Amino acid sequence: MIKLKNILAEALNIYSVDIIIVSDKDANITDVFDGMRAIRRVTIVRSNTSDEREVKNRSRTDGKEVHTATIKFVAGQDPKQDLEFFKTTMLQSDKGDPNKRIPGLRHVVFKPESLTKL
Predict the structure, then answer these.
(1) Which residue, 16, 80, 103, 108, shows the most beta carbons closer than 10 Å to its own?
(2) Rounded Cα distance, 16 and 47, in Å
């Protein structure tokens, strides 16, 4: 008998990619991650910022913090095109609204070499 889990795994293209996030120092990074999770097709956002990076963040005086994370998402036909969609969605708000969609998020960089199908 075919298990439901196996059927879903075949039907869905689930990918993982590492990202670098630049956020405001006064922003709660958990809120930034929650905003990323709210984007369509993103399923998991897991922080993997090293202790060394956290020490550097505390000593920064430019009002920014740098974090690393891994996101898992359900891909369409082209997962690399989905990454561009995620970046645009994370950084831009609705038309005419001058605020960012995810408050506190300044910049996001995807590492396409880490893109893997799960």
Answers:
(1) 108
(2) 13
How many degrees, rounded to 5, is the angle at CA 68 between CA 48 and CA 76?
100
Q: What's this model's pTM, rounded to 2 decimal places?
A: 0.80
Q: Tens digits of per-residue pLDDT, 80-116?
A: 999 998 998 888 766 655 566 888 899 999 999 999 9
pLDDT tens for 2-12 read 677 666 665 67
The total of structural domains in the chain comes to: 1
Domain holding 95: CATH number? 3.30.70
